[in-house]
């Protein structure tokens, strides 16, 4: 089977391409490289010992998209391409709606034209907003609190409508919690441009000496040590969840919504100490005020994915920290 991966040069996309190749799928990637480098594709090819066809195409470019679909036989799409920075989405909402929502509309139109009706979509736990309790099940109310999250919910709804109009579509909506970690080879990993806004890449850059000190956003939450609690899931487990979701699409039709998480939450201070252990480096940190929009605690009930896909996350926090450290230490400048 030939799988088209949009955003395949990015963090989760590159790890998923590798697992798809390892599982025997053929892979083509569309990416405009707005938040990634083609070097990730070179490294995935090396690790898998197999080729990936790479198309530098923007999802907003309908003609370019049409050419990709017209020139290849595509069996299914995994759709990662999108902008994902919460604070940037608050500042530039139109950019986010344009890129994420219009990009998806173009993709769906091309899929419809070329009769490709299988899609796995990267949604996010952000669609739940501030959950009233934890763990979070797929039935929780959907109430995103920022434009980025609203693009995810809009796209989920668009895809449901596409299915309602044509029941031949098979759609998986995967809501990831907090992907972290890197491939154990240390060859591919997360490479955010500028100063990272997420915890793991920030800590990694402090550990490697590129940043001086981590700001811990609040220690007065109602959690075990007062700092925010999240469900960090190894990116390779997330990637393998996509392979399982694809297998499911081949067997069963309809729309399926699944959380991808571990079911276990860790506080910021627990992450710092696990990272110190893995790296052997001290992580200087200071407690500062809460970050606007953050919730105290969010972790998944992952039992539906286990039931429906026979998938569960099997890599723990220590492995996540060791893998991030290996990636960061051997690539202090990322893919540059
Ligand atoms: P990423 O930025 O590393 O990857 C996204 C890729 O999409 C990048 O390579 C970028 O160049 C590409 N892209 C963006 N807009 C495009 C466009 N218009 N046309 C073509 N390519 C385009 O991000 P990631 O962390 O790998 O996330 C992948 C997906 O998972 C995103 O949709 C994100 O919203 C979602 N997600 C991520 C997280 C997380 O914490 N990393 C959590 C939940 C959901
Ligand atoms: N944190 C710090 N200091 C930092 C960065 C983060 O203390 O420099 C804390 C946050 O306050 C939070 C925790 O670390 O308690 C995790 O923060 P991240 O920014 O890594 O992750 P979030 O849970 O805020 O959000 C991430 C993605 C969203 C996605 C969400 C759920 O950024 O896009 O996970 O999937 F929607």
Overview of this protein structure:
The chain is 41% helix and 18% strand. Helix 1 crosses helix 8. It is globular. The strands form 4 sheets. Strands 3-2-1-4-5-6-11 form a 7-stranded parallel beta sheet, with helices on both faces. Strands 12-9-14 form a 3-stranded mixed beta sheet. Strand 5 (118-124), helix 6 (147-165) and strand 6 form a beta-alpha-beta unit. The mean pLDDT is 97. The protein is an alpha/beta fold and 336 residues long. It contains 11 helices and 14 strands. Bound molecules: nicotinamide-adenine-dinucleotide and uridine-5'-diphosphate-4-deoxy-4-fluoro-alpha-D-galactose. Nicotinamide-adenine-dinucleotide binds at residues 7, 9-13, 30-36, 58-60, 80-84, 99, 103, 122, 124, 176, 178-179.
How are the elements arranged and paired?
Elements: E1 2-6, H1 11-22, E2 26-31, H2 39-48, E3 53-56, H3 62-71, E4 76-79, H4 86-91, H5 93-113, E5 118-124, H6 147-165, E6 170-176, E7 178-180, H7 199-207, E8 214-217, E9 229-230, E10 232-234, H8 235-251, E11 254-260, E12 266-267, H9 268-279, E13 285-288, E14 297-298, H10 303-309, H11 317-330
Parallel strand pairs: 1-2, 1-4, 2-3, 4-5, 5-6, 6-11, 7-10, 8-13, 9-14
Antiparallel strand pairs: 9-12
Helix pairs in contact: 1-2, 1-8, 3-5, 5-6, 7-9, 7-11, 9-11
The structure holds nicotinamide-adenine-dinucleotide and uridine-5'-diphosphate-4-deoxy-4-fluoro-alpha-D-galactose.
């Amino acid at each position: 089977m030939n799988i088209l991966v949009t955003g395949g040069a990015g963090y989760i996309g590159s790890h998923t391409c590798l697992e798809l190749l390892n599982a025997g799928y053929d892979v083509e990637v569309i990416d405009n490289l707005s938040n990634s480098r083609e070097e990730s594709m070179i490294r995935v090819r090396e690790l898998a010992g197999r080729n990936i066809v790479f198309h530098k195409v923007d999802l907003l470019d309908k003609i370019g998209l049409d050419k990709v679909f017209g020139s290849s036989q595509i069996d299914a799409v995994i759709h990662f391409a999108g902008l994902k920075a919460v604070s940037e989405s608050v500042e530039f909402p139109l950019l986010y709606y344009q890129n994420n929502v219009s990009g998806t509309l173009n993709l769906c139109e091309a899929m419809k034209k070329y009769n490709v009706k299988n899609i796995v979509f990267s949604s996010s736990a952000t669609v739940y907003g501030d959950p009233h309790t934890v763990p979070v099940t797929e039935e929780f109310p959907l109430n995103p609190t920022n434009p980025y999250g609203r693009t995810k919910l809009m796209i989920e709804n668009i895809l449901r409508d596409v299915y309602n109009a044509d029941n031949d579509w098979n759609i998986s909506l995967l809501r990831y919690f907090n992907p972290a970690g890197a491939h154990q080879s240390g060859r591919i990993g997360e490479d955010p441009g500028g100063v990272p806004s997420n915890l793991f890449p920030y800590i990694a850059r402090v550990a490697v000496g590129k940043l001086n000190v981590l700001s811990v956003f609040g220690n007065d939450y109602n959690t075990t040590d007062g700092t925010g609690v999240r469900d960090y899931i190894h990116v390779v487990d997330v990637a393998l969840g996509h392979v399982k979701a694809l297998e499911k699409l081949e067997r069963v039709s309809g729309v399926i919504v699944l959380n991808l998480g571990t079911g276990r939450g860790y506080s910021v201070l627990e992450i710092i100490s696990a990272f110190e252990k893995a790296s052997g480096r001290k992580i200087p940190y200071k407690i500062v005020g809460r970050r606007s929009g953050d919730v105290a605690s969010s972790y998944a009930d992952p039992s539906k994915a286990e039931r429906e896909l026979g998938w569960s996350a099997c890599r723990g926090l220590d492995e996540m920290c060791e893998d991030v450290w290996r990636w960061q230490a051997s690539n202090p400048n990322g893919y540059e």
